[in-house]
């Protein structure tokens, strides 16, 4: 058993004590409802006693599924009982989809850059990829259309699955425009591929919520993957898939870790005690402020050659430092007391990612964000080869 | 995607209200420590706040692993840090092992009967099996030796993996004798296969604990799978694998649902507050009494042609009713108010299992066990074709 890439979690650098964490895609600690979850567990076990501690039987297991189905409905997706599967986070959902749809012949289309864990998952199944660059409006569907047309003309294999994070993307923070969403769905129909819509950040819009691909999907081509990790607590491992029953059936068959009754029933108990929309609005206002703070600090401290995308939601700011290999920058940044994730980990061809880095505004406090960006600027100031005259900031 | 067998959980019949549950392989409700787990969560979240609700960071995640490693050591297995992987129950552990070791060419040796979920898992990978019958001393290693010798002589493929539940087996309740344990390990060395030792019930001995295969394994041929489902709470989904680092590495790679911090840290918090040996002794005395009650009731109510094995631990009694198809008996039993699992679900060749059924003494109360066996006897009395004169009870 040999692995071509680094082992899992290689991008997780060991952080020195006191390091300002601009690397962690974690929720803000104060927004993780630990007190509410303590109460949710007490209520759950007082009411149900041993039920949520068995394999089956807690009424809150179906209640969680019902909550997720209703939530999907408010977002324009009517998922029937057998069209939604609760999973252990989005990662298990992606892995199950890969397992059911892919084999070592399959071609998978992915954004460049994209979520590194998803890349790792797909690479357990196939070595064949089509990468589509991202710009400030997300996946470049015109480029995808050209690539597909070219492959068709030359008789080359077409993708079976396209993996996208259309909203507040990881790592770029970009959002696929409505026009491109429509175009992508047309291409899926024209070239007969399925779309895995990873919506882990989709409920974290600062102002509005873009329309889901799944809500625009009239041909059952979209497999929607959701997660409560970013909006409640990642440690509860609650994700789900909404898709055609013919997909959900085999996913369920291959999901051999069974349900997680304690996690799922606890989540249901937590959700029944809160107003979820108010909860989300609370998150959005905090993260919007933290994002604004990070963008101001970048503007204030970073040299003009450095550029970034402006996110409208999510956790991340994607920064480009021309001429710098950010993985070589990282040890200096850690020594100075600030962390980030080098861009190369988000690309299949890691060379493409050298000048980028991902900053997260979700975990650190506003004060830490300002200090962290300032430290980063100092480290970059030492490392940057030749400051350019113009900025391509947006 | 087509499935040759029934969908998952087909053996879980829908129970009418008030049905006496002799089907459920669940722990006794009063022994599931729901109050202690409520306190464990409160202590955990008061002390660690958001830590166990993130992806990483709770000190209790490594503490749980440490507990399991120490526990293994008390049972004669020294597993280093990189020789143990915590999983979501034994099922995920078995699935990961199958994923890493098997392909569609692989031959797998399994006991007949055996745990139905494991059969389903293996069937996701290969169609090739060698089945070895079980008697009152467990897997018949002499038969296995003959089969292997014969295959070798005829140039037929030899098994890559043998799956066994050597102690208090599911469904038969039998325990592999020490002599056969030695023989099995010799055969693994001689014919070059690995052994998956599923020890889900191994800590539930009424009197003593047989020596683990893994503790006798001098050639790194045994992959040990443990579980806290039967001794603490299945709904927490805590299992583990202890094996060579060269096995654990790829298992970890394919384990794409990540850790389950809330479940794992809660379990660690629970375990640190109890004396585990006392906890196990408490379970053993309750289950021993319930088993004795079930055996007495079987002796009292069932016709002489019916036979069973006498378990020394675990959850189950395996009953044979000659001439009866127990899957046809089930609807009548459910109508009468008692459930069991038909034997056929525990066999790859379901025809072999027709006259058997699995009774569980773990979940029902002693009163319910007596009543349930009495109801079962009435249903069998109607169904049994021709009572034999002799009994082969043991």
Automatic annotation (TrEMBL), chains A, B:
InterPro entries: Aminotransferase_I/II_large, Class-I_PLP-dep_aminotransf, PyrdxlP-dep_Trfase, PyrdxlP-dep_Trfase_major, PyrdxlP-dep_Trfase_small. Residues 22-373 form the Aminotransferase class I/classII large domain. GO terms for molecular function: transaminase activity. Its cofactor is pyridoxal 5'-phosphate. Keywords: Aminotransferase, Pyridoxal phosphate, Transferase. It comes from the Bacteria. Pfam families: Aminotran_1_2. This is PLP-dependent aminotransferase family protein. It comes from Planococcus wigleyi.
């Amino acid at each position: 058993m040999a692995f071509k890439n680094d082992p899992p979690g290689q991008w997780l650098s060991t952080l020195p004590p006191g390091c300002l964490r601009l690397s962690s895609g974690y929720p803000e600690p104060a927004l993780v409802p630990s007190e509410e979850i303590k109460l949710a567990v007490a209520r759950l076990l007082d009411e149900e006693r041993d039920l949520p501690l068995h394999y089956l039987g807690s009424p809150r297991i179906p209640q969680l599924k019902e909550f997720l189905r209703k939530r999907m409905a408010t977002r324009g997706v009517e998922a029937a009982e057998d069209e939604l599967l609760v999973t252990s986070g989005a990662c298990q959902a992606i892995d199950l989809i890969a397992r059911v749809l892919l084999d070592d012949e399959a071609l998978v289309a992915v954004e460049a850059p994209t979520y590194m864990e998803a890349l790792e998952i797909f690479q357990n199944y196939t070595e064949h990829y089509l990468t589509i660059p991202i710009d400030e409006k997300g996946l470049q569907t015109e480029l995808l259309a050209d690539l597909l047309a070219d492959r068709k003309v030359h008789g080359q294999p077409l993708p079976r699955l396209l993996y996208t994070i259309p909203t507040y993307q990881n790592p770029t923070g970009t959002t696929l425009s409505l026009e491109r969403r429509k175009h992508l769905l047309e291409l899926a129909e024209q070239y007969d591929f399925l779309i895995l819509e990873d919506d882990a950040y989709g409920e974290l819009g600062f102002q509005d919520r873009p329309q889901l691909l799944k809500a625009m999907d009239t041909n059952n081509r979209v497999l929607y993957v959701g997660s409560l990790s970013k909006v409640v607590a990642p440690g509860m491992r609650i994700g789900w898939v909404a898709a055609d029953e013919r997909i959900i059936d085999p996913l369920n068959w291959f999901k051999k870790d069974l349900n997680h009754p304690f996690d799922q029933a606890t989540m249901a108990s937590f959700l029944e005690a809160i107003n979820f929309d108010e909860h989300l609005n609370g998150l959005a206002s905090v993260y919007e402020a933290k994002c604004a703070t990070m963008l101001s600090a970048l503007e204030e401290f970073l040299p003009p050659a450095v550029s970034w995308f402006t996110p409208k939601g999510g956790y991340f700011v994607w920064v480009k430092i021309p001429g710098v290999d950010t993985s070589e920058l990282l040890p200096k940044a850690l020594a100075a007391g600030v962390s980030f994730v080098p861009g190369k980990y988000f690309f299949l061809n890691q060379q493409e990612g050298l000048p980028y880095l991902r900053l997260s505004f979700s975990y650190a406090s506003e004060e830490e964000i300002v200090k962290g960006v300032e430290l980063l600027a100092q480290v970059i100031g030492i490392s940057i080869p030749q400051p350019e005259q113009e900025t391509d900031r947006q």
